[in-house]
Each structure stands twice: as structure tokens, then as C-alpha cells.
Amino acid sequence: MALLTVEDLQVRYGLIQAIRGVSFEVNEGEVVALIGANGAGKTTIMHSICNLIPKAGGKVTFMDKDITNTPAHKLTYMGVAQVPEGRRIFQELTVAENLRLGAYTRKSKAEINASMEEMYERFPILKERSKQIAGTLSGGEQQMLATTRALMSRPKLLLMDEPSMGLSPLFVNIIFDMIKKVNEEGTTVLLVEQNAKKALSIANRAYVLEIGKMVKTGTGKELLEDDSIRKAYLGG
Amino acid sequence: MSTLIDGLSLGSIYALIALGYTMVYGIAKMLNFAHGDIIMVGTYAILTTMALCGFPAVAIVMAVIVCTILGIVVEKVAYKPLRGASPLAVLITAIGVSYLLQSIAQLIYGAKPQPVTLINFGHVTFGSTTLNISTLVTLGVAAVIMAGLTVFIKKTKTGRAMLAVSEDRGAAELMGIPVNKVITLTFGIGSALAAAASVFYLLQIPATSPTVGSLPGIKAFTAAVIGGIGSIPGAMIGGILLGVIEKVCMSIPALNPYTTAIEFSLLIVILLVKPTGLLGKKRREKV
Fold first, then answer.
1. Which domains does chain B carry?
2. Is B42 within 8 Å of B67 (Cβ atoms)?
3. What is the pLDDT of residues A57-77, one digit of tens each?
4. Chain B interface residues (partner A, CB cutoff 8 A)
5. Which residue of A118, B89, B119, B231 has the smallest Cβ count within 10 Å?
6. Given pLDDT bands bounded at 50, 70 and 90, which one contains residue B73?
7. pTM
8. Residue B61 — φ and ψ, nearest 5°?
9. What are phi and psi of B54, to 5 degrees?
10. Does the beta-carbon distance from A101 to B164 stay under 8 Å?
């Protein structure tokens, strides 16, 4: 069953049409990757799904509800969480405060505390640094925090935008293991990545984006073995 | 000694006003130059209520209610339609709102200054120093208000949401924080603080006129910039610093005529030496 459906999405920046009619869907339980080069429009798609930037056309459906014009903060209540490009954690707040803000949509204090404990157990480094100002964390730790912060809202759908950007290979592996685990526990994931090889290796299905248009789709494995994809994105 | 306490007291008035500037700047990323005129509206609310019923407590509550509502209405009517517009357009609108409020006050109450008697506390004498009780009340109540605000911002969910919006509006929205509501709330709180400032102002100078808010407004803005615009503790420190400097300069005969010049020179010096203000942080450039 399709959890998220994007139909004929169009986005403009002034006169430039950045997204020219992109359609795709994410089924419940999947990890779906959007891959493409720098400037292909991946982040634009992520921002426009959540209405952080306006759409010029198209329709977005989540759990059979039309969310084309639903503002971002209401989507969080519906079960969509996004880990934005560049992490965008609250640098001036502590790690614990960041996690609490992630649970903004939830009411029960006891449950929120339980979730925090769970996150700390899974990522002991966050517990160690819970009182530290988030801006002092390393890039990898910040990505970890951004991801756990998004999970604190207990999303049905997690949108991850370039989680590997600027991270050491060690942290890239940690983050991708995290995504895999989150998915196994029942969260559907839409993953946008420049690191196509990594993304395709954990994705059930993937779409390839080129200057605002979808040019190819297939399972992760198919695309990993596709010659043209290999040439363009996987380094030969 | 009494100069210092006078300075702290005046400074806490500046601090209350500066908090309004700095919170609105932090969260809505705009300089609300009509903020000083909210104080003016507060003084007229007190004037009118005192004339109608004569109870200071009722007058103070009225001032807070009128200013809070006015702040929220101004935001909704004048600033919200400009969200996303160029900062210059918003700035000019704010200046326009400032003149609008002054003109309305002038239409209703006339341009002449009018006396406002709120409460006359008298004074106390400790040994050789005589202090106005109103000065001490101002200092004490302002301290309580600022402490309360700090706890609210640091410890409550709504306060943390305000900090989140001020740091990264988009990311805050992704957390589920209703950014527009937070901005409205900020204007409400800022205006309520301005109402408190209008009460303390009248305790010190029991008169008002349509332009009464301008100079305290500009000085409090200066205080907010000195402390680091956007920083809440910065506004408190900047306000108190400016108040103490003002009273100290006024008490020294040689410096007295230059008091205002010295205050604004301090602003220039701070901007040259530390453009982000005393507690201002350099914001990371976002791509």
C-alpha cells in the first residue's frame, strides 16, 4: 500500500523550473532512495513535500489524505518527520533539549522520558553529551542527534535528506545502520542521497533524478547493477 | 549609592523594553520600531482608566491587556502579510506603525503632555541616603518579571519552542512547532513587557504625551544592540548597563549635558569593537 504518493510535482524558483513534474510513491515498510547528482532537485523535492517551500503544481498524498498544502508543523502531527539536509539541529540548545523538541507533538511526559532513555541506550554517546550544547558535537554526532530528534516524534514516514553529507566513512556506516534498523522496526523511509552506492545498498526501490526529472526507477539491486547508473553515479 | 540604585531601576525599565525588541528580533527576525509606542499606548491606557475608575491596580491590568492585544493586532495586520518580504519593507512598515500609533494618540488625547498620577509611594531614608520607594518597587518587580521570563523560556515547552524558532524557523516547523503562533505569542509577551515598562515609567515621570515612547524606545533598542540583539540575557544586561550609565552621567555635573551623547557613543564603540554585542553570538551562515 502506498504510504506517500507524489504526483506530477512541480517547483519553481522564480523563472527557473527546478522540478518538472516528478512522480513517485513510497509503500509502507519500504526504504525508497532518491538519487541524483548535485543540483538535480533532491532537496527541493524534500522541502516541497513538507511545504517548507511552495509547490508550483502537483499533488502529494499521505495515508490517503491530500497533504499538498498541509503546513509542515501539521505533517509532524500526522506522522511525517524529516531529517533536513545539513542536519539543522538547534545548535544553541543542549542535546537533551533537542530531543525534547523532537517530541514536541507528543503529550505524555512519561512516554517522552521513556523514549529519551531508549535513544540514550541505543546511542550512549548522546547520553554522555545530553547536557552539552549541541553545536559542540562533531558532524557525525550531530547527524545522529538530528536523526534521533526526528524519531522522537515516532513517525510513520521518515524523510532523510543527505544524511551522509560531510561525514567520515565510519559515521556514514553508523547512520546507514541506524536507517536500516529504524526501517526494520516499522518506520518507512524516504532517503535522498548523493552517496548512491550506500543508498542503493539499503533501498528496496530507488528513483534516479536528473535536472528536475525522474529518469529511471528500479529496485536497489537492479540499479546497482545498471551500467548507466554505475557510470554516472557509482564511479565506473 | 542612591545614584546606583536609581540607575539599576531605570536600567530595569530599559531592560524590560529591550526584551521586547530582542525577543521579536530573535523570533520574527525584524526590528519592531513601533515597540516604543506600545509603551505610550500603555501610559494612555493608564491615564484613561485612572480617570474613569481611579484604581491603580485596574489601570495596570488594563495597560497590560490593551498593550498585549495591540501588539498582537499590529503583528497580524501589519507584519504578517509581509512575512518573507525584504527586511527593508518590514522595517519601513514598523516605522509607519510607529507614526500611526503616535498620530492616533494625538487625535484622541491631543499633543499636549498630560499628568498621570498612578501611585505616589513617597520615599524612605536609610542613614544619609534618601530613596524613592517607587524606584525600589520598579527594581524589585522588574527583577521578578525578568526571572519569571527566564524560567519560562528555559523550562517550559513553549519557551523551548520559542528558542527553536529563533534559531531555525524551518527546522522548528519540522518539529511540529506552529511557527506563526509562536511569533504571535512573542509579540504578545513583548507588548505585555512594554506595558509593565509604561507603569514603571509613570512611577518615575508622572506625565505622558504621544511621543513619550520614542526616547525610551530608542534607548532600549540601543541597550538590546549593546547586549547582543536576539539575546535575552543580553537585553537585560544591556538595559541595566545603559540605565546605570545614564544615572551616573547625570549625577556628575561635568558630564550631565552629554548624557545621551555618551549613551549612544557607547553603542558606536560596541558596534566597532564587538558588532554582535556583548552576548551576541555569531550566527552560522545557512546555505
1. 2-121+142-273 (1.10.3470)
2. yes
3. 999 999 999 999 999 999 999
4. 157, 160-161, 163-164, 167-168, 170-179, 281, 284, 286-287
5. B89
6. very high
7. 0.90
8. -60, -45
9. 85, 0
10. yes
